[in-house]
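pinging the channel bc i need a second pair of eyes. not urgent but kinda urgent?? the chain im working w is below, pasted from the shared doc
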Amino acid sequence: MASTVFELVMPVMSLAGASHALTSLLGLCAICGIVYTVVAAASVGVFFDRHSPVNDHFPSVTVLKPLSGMETALLDNLRSFCEQDYRGAVQYLFGVHDACDPALAVVKQLQIDFPGAHITIVANSDMHGSNRKVSNLINMLPAAEHDLFVFADSDVTVGPDYLSRVVGELHADGVGLVTCAYVGVREPGFWPRLSARAVDYQFLPGVVMGLRLGLAHPCFGQTIAMRRQTLESIGGLRPLSCVLAEDHAIGAAVRKNGQKVVVPGFVVGHACQETTATTLIEHELRWSRTIRRIDPIGHAGSALSYPIPWATLTILSGGPQMWTISLFLISLGVRALLQLRIDAILKRPVEGLFLLPVWDLMAFAILCQSFASSRVVWRGFSFRVDGHGMLKGEQRRSSAD
């Protein structure tokens, strides 16, 4: 009889032990996320305390802006580049694939608003590979008149000292490229608000922590400043015409060439225009899958930077015990601390603290989903990304995977 009872009890005890181990593991992951968040909150201030060198050089610059379609804040974004307090000559070079692209109407308005600006337009439908942005830039480069290039995406807004600071950074010894981290500039509505949170309280701390620990080697399309000679020395843009993360590849090539890539202690603005859940998920999946191709181990490890989802899973696994609830509340607190710290540094009002758990849970789900497929969507086109980060099988598409 005793042996029979033992045989019945042992499986139950084994399951209970396994459940306890799982709960403990999930709790440990939440603790890792808490520690990460506290360190990130402290590190953000260090990043912004770095000042750009005083710039006494004002060489002629060509600002290259690839365009594709109309964007809500496009005029304001482009206008910020034309309002630079820069002593040197500046050529503004805009490129489209289609001569009827509606973005050209905005460029025409710029020509009216800034009659003294040197604005050049290139409309060329030639495709050199699956990366449409790189093809656009390849078509634009022959029209670039100066030997210092500043590549900047269409959805970027900058301050009046932007060019001076970027050029000053580029003139430091051994620097071959300057790129900029960014914060979100949201459009009206709930989904753009969530998108901006992804940039401000997930992306930016991740960049700062990666730089501080020496684990990240970023290069962002929001700003890539480099000399013509440097671009030519890495083989130009044609080898990147089918690469998903062309910005990262440019930075990697410059580093391989023996030059430094600098991320200065200031940020530019990135327009958050994802007005529906579908477009937001498409954008975040593309970003997440891009990082996965660049650094699969680091991408998987980044899951430990999400304390709220891990604390939530701990409660679901172990039940609402004192320690699991405490872990969840601490996770909420440190995430709020990080937002308060960033908002204070950027001198802006604190808004939407209640959205922290909403976005964190959604972002964690997107991170997990990024391992389930190799498809990305960019401006309505769907691509498969192979193991080398190359874009394959372009398809016209408007919905997420």
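so Confidence is low (pLDDT under 50) at residues 4-16, 397-401. and The chain has 13 helices and 13 strands. — does that match what u expected or am i reading it wrong
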